[in-house]
Amino acid sequence: MVALSSYEVEYIATSTAACQGVWLAHLLAELMGEEASTIALKIDIQSAIALSKNPVFHNRSKHIDVRFHYIHECVEENRVQLQSIGMMEQLADILTKALGREHFCELRSRLGLSDVQKAH
Predict the structure, then answer these.
(1) Nearest 5 degrees, angle CA 83-CA 86-CA 92?
(2) Is 91 in contact with 110 (CB distance < 8 Å)?
(3) Which of 86, 93, 85, 107 has its CA nearest to residue 40?
(4) Host domain of residue 14
(5) Do residue 63 and residue 14 come from a single domain?
(6) Is 43 left (phi over 0), alpha (psi -120 to 50) or beta?
(7) Which entry of 38, 73, 98, 118 is 20 to 30 Å from 109 by CA?
């Protein structure tokens, strides 16, 4: 699938993450003899959250493959809770983007990593 915009990429990734998260929640619940809990997904693109909650088919989203609309079903059934996160708080950016030194160091410390050079 080729996404045409950043919100489509985020929407597709959210649907994939929801699929894996719901499966893991059910597996853990079954192992522990409990009911599966709602999982929380943090997303930094508001339009992907809006599309997940209300997949209105219009010119910009009608070409998205039906399988990726699984996230809408998960949100409606309260299996997944979508949370907005600011772009500066996105921990995954340290793995995917070129960052300024200050932002890189902040994210690195939030991940619990330390600078090896300073440790010696």
Answers:
(1) 85
(2) yes
(3) 85
(4) 1-85
(5) yes
(6) beta
(7) 38
